[in-house]
């Protein structure tokens, strides 16, 4: 394993750990935030209860004309209890806010660490892929050529010349396809032979090299919710010579050379 690959692998491991830590920190921040919300609601209820108890105590004092009666004592005890609950709720809210602040800082710190590791891992991975591409020979591949260069209207040749080239192309293409089919059939017959020497014929089999598995690459990208990178292909060229070949079919005996074909097309 090269140094670059080892570094990329190490960063990937750290990245996985950072993702786990960031997710845990986000969950802790969410829990702390909800705890603050619940504590704030309890403070709100306790403050309302304390206010009501204080009003009830004042009303009891006025009714008793500032004499200490059992009703006044009961109202006073209730007011004290509600005030104590309010103070306790405020203390719980203060602690919850402190914990939420710590959780929020931890989540931000984990997020920053994740971002840094993501960038470093991406750079290391790109360098590793570049080295792998070089080993696979992808850097020596011929890039896709641009679209065909077409002639401007003023440079178009005569129709007879176009038909002549198209007829030559159709004849050569037909011969090439026939020869290719015949060669494939003979090759298929020969591939059935085991490795060995047969007179002057030597049959060997060399292990093939590896190629990039496009299907697996697409699946890996899909598993991560990404779209596999693609590049445009060159447009398909086709010259339809069906009508021309049909017209020349009856003249096959007369046409022997390309010059004869040209004379017939010009006639």
Short description:
The chain is mainly α. 70% of the residues lie in helices and 2% in strands.
Q: How does this structure look, described?
A:
With 267 residues, this protein is mainly α. The chain contains six helices and two strands; from the N terminus they run αααββααα. It has helices spanning 3-63, 70-136, 159-191, 214-223, 242-248, 258-266, and strands spanning 196-198, 201-203. A two-stranded antiparallel ribbon has the order 1-2. Helix 1 (3-63) packs antiparallel against helix 2 and helix 3 packs antiparallel against helix 6 (258-266). The two termini are 72 Å apart. The mean pLDDT is 82.
Keywords:
mainly alpha, 267 residues
Write the layout of secondary structure elements.
Elements: H1 3-63, H2 70-136, H3 159-191, E1 196-198, E2 201-203, H4 214-223, H5 242-248, H6 258-266
Antiparallel strand pairs: 1-2
Helix pairs in contact: 1-2, 3-6
Mean pLDDT: 82
| Structural shape | elongated
How would you write the strand order of the largest sheet?
Answer: 1-2
Could you state the order of secondary-structure elements as H and E? HHHEEHHH
Largest sheet: 2 strands, antiparallel
- Share of β-strand residues: under 5%
Oligomer: single chain
| Individual helix count | 6
């Amino acid at each position: 394993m090269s140094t670059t690959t080892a570094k990329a692998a190490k960063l990937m491991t750290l990245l996985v750990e950072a993702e786990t830590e960031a997710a845990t920190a986000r969950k802790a921040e969410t829990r702390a935030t909800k705890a603050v919300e619940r504590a704030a609601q309890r403070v709100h209820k306790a403050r309302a209860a304390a206010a009501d108890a204080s009003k009830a105590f004042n009303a009891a004092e006025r009714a008793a004309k500032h004499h200490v009666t059992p009703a006044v004592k009961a109202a006073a005890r209730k007011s004290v209890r509600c005030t104590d609950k309010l103070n306790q709720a405020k203390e719980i809210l203060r602690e919850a806010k402190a914990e939420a602040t710590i959780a929020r800082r931890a989540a931000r710190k984990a997020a920053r660490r994740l971002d840094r590791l993501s960038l470093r891992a991406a750079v290391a991975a790109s360098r590793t892929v570049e080295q792998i591409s070089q080993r696979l020979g992808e850097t020596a591949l011929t890039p896709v050529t641009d679209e065909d260069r077409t002639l401007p209207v003023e440079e178009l040749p005569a129709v007879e010349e176009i038909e002549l080239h198209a007829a030559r192309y159709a004849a050569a293409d037909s011969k090439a396809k026939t020869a290719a089919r015949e060669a494939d059939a003979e090759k298929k017959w020969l591939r059935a032979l085991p490795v060995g020497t047969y007179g002057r014929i030597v049959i060997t089999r060399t292990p093939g090299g590896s190629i990039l598995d496009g299907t697996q690459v697409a699946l890996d990208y899909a598993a991560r919710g990404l779209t596999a990178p693609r590049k445009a292909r060159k447009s398909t060229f086709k010259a339809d010579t069906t009508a021309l070949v049909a017209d020349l079919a009856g003249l096959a005996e007369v046409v022997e050379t390309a010059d004869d074909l040209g004379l017939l097309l010009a006639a």
